[in-house]
């Protein structure tokens, strides 16, 4: 079984397209909490309010790290998607974290980000543009069949 | 001796301010190649031209990775600076890479980036706004003196 | 599944409150032997009496270490509870051991211990006061739902 | 050369007695910042004031962790001293951290703490009561001579 | 259960002979994609054509590395077969990779390759000539019975 | 579940006494091949005769190492029994190997071997004389009950 | 300082060209014994003759492994050269060994070997054809200057 | 520079013969305390008398472990000598410890011990009978010259 962690962009349906496309394959997917509001506020919701936004964010980011670290450390493959919006530094951070652990990295992004992501892409075993390509990679890695 | 790697932004003088401010301290600094043009073109300059920009970038990013990895792996402390311009995904990638190796991370950025960098900051042992604060940290870590 | 080790205080019902509150969640809990007398005397009960109290304690502490080490090494998350009584150095030792292994740490203690536990808290991904908050964290990490 | 980290109690002269007694031996000592006030306030002094005491402490504890981690990770031997006062959970945390990294541990404490420290002592290669015994251990380990 | 990765030559039936011979043993086998054409072209088939043969090969080799690395890292035993044809540098690369990870290596080759493979054989726990000997080794390792 | 590897002496029934005594406990036992003749001759029986006794032994010892290494690496606890006969250097080698991997060691031997085994015992978490004590340890570690 | 291990082909002057070209750079080079006869016969010359060529080779290959392993493990960068002659499986083995340890790999070979070396090249951070390119890489990595 | 740890027998002059023979080579030797009485009594001499011989030995063995572990962990090569007398289980323990850490092992013993040491020899990169052969190995590893 392949354990795959899906990191990065949370505002499009790329995860669903990969998960749906992989039906029938021996793959277990994991991902961060993708509910933006919950992800931002989890820290203060559980551990108490913070007047300072920095610590508000800090508490939440650390709770999310419990899930993210386990997801990456348990994974065989880490897929990191960079979308068109936002800074997405957490996605690049996850990619670096996964690379240092020796995970197989697949980076997913549009052509316009090629230059800005060159260091991230250079650490990857595959750079794809569409979620369906990731599905094809998973199928090939599992049973050797090509599209 | 403290070995410190200075990752991230290459368009302001933050490295110089840290290195100059640390005169007399037992610190050895390392950093990526900060000549933007050399860093972009090193791959093709040494290993041969590529008509496709993706592979042009790819060859260069891999050569730079030889230096970056050694710099991070040898370091006790990795300082990562996020500036006001560009995507800076390589900086976040370095931070993730360093975090996974258990390095002590110091993140340096302006207040406006606090929310976008919350996951990176959450992995750090210090979050500073000015290079002089990094100097003060290095001095305190080495000899216990405060500003 | 999350594997969670519950270290520390053995004289209140905090473990039961976490385990009971986590019913229905995909969590496997582990903990030290919490029978104080058995924990103190296991070494000599099995391996033979010692006239010197130091070696009496030593034999027992080493048997308990077989269980503790496995519990911590197998865990994704290590929760360490500091109560109001006793030195509880073994709890702090477990926290340090878990931190060095890169485990996600949750520290549980009352407000009065904040200053004395600052180094331990600084290594944690969450600091909570009530066992129910730990349950909420586990639920959030598993399925993203907030209280 | 032996690299020795001296962790724990900061209110008596045990470190000086070890360092002075080791004159002429091939040992390099390291230790945390032992100026109590500086150690407590370093975070806010460098990185900015915090109205909440928890975050005041948190910022300081993390700066101190930069020094502590390096000291422990670089060491061959970690000596941890437990005195008669305070909770000293940071000392026990350091001991656990060092144990998990496979460092040779020497624990230094009076007889009255034997039972409370049994788990910590069980992870050690030596348990001593006086700093002079630590000096004798270092001398024996280096050149085989006994007192 | 023994997890066994079968690396190397893809043009004879040695894998089938080992897998068939091991029927009834508690062994799980894994191997690279052995369809030569698929293995060569997988990169461009999924990720897009490359005019330069070097990058054509490069993309494919990296996709295959996702499977190979997982296969070797998950294995208890790595069997590497060297046949009579081709350079087979990937087989020797896999052997080196497995050796550095501390895997138990079994090398399978004819007598004529003995001198050329001496460094690879020197890292192995067994050097065999016939696939049936590998089956006998697996049976002996599992239940102690000899042929 | 506890995974326990039983290393050492093969001429008495100590393994049976531990395995039988542990009926009902959640323990999985593993051990080397204990058929002395098979263990000595496995190498040449499978891989071909050797005129030189050194290489005869060498081939066998390496095949046995495939099983031994996996047994020790997979184990939570390694029990090493030293009997009254033979050099038993392989038992001491296994103990050292297990110690370096951080396994919990239980050493089992009669009083007469105490001085000769002091370095091995010093690396152990328990030193027992009778197999039944090992059973009691396993029971205590699993469910906290004492004899 | 960069530590560079030069593995592979021993029949051309590529090592000299790299070492000579790197005069003045802060690089320490290491390499295997490149005297072919000594390398083949070292085992029996020191440890005694073997009538069987396999064990003759085996003893030598293991002595050479003492040097090779240290060379690779100490290195920051491992350069592996594939020439036009011989099987060179030891070169590919070294490349795999270095890759698994996370070393920065530079592969050096002529165009004709591109397809056969695609898996090895895919693990490298640079693929060069001429020793002078390796010198240029070392210079760039050290001081950022391009040819 | 090669760092070499000389473990095992302390009653003959084999260490002197290796050290003397290696004059002029770039080797740093380390070894356990070879004063038998000091080694046996160091624990109680420094840390206080024990009426029970087991704990007398235990305290000493642990102090010696501080030196032994550092010696082995720092070494590139571990030479283990088995003499004609005593059980020498500590020597075999050191060999196992060094093997698990991936150190290059050289085993030194007379022909009569070949069968009893077959598992230890099987983990070694060289098996020699005379100290002078070890010197020849060190010289060959360092400069490629043969006797």
Automatic annotation (TrEMBL), chains A, B, C, D, E, F, G, H:
InterPro entries: YtoQ_family_protein. It holds the Pfam family Nuc_deoxyri_tr3. NCBIfam families: YtoQ_fam. This is YtoQ family protein.
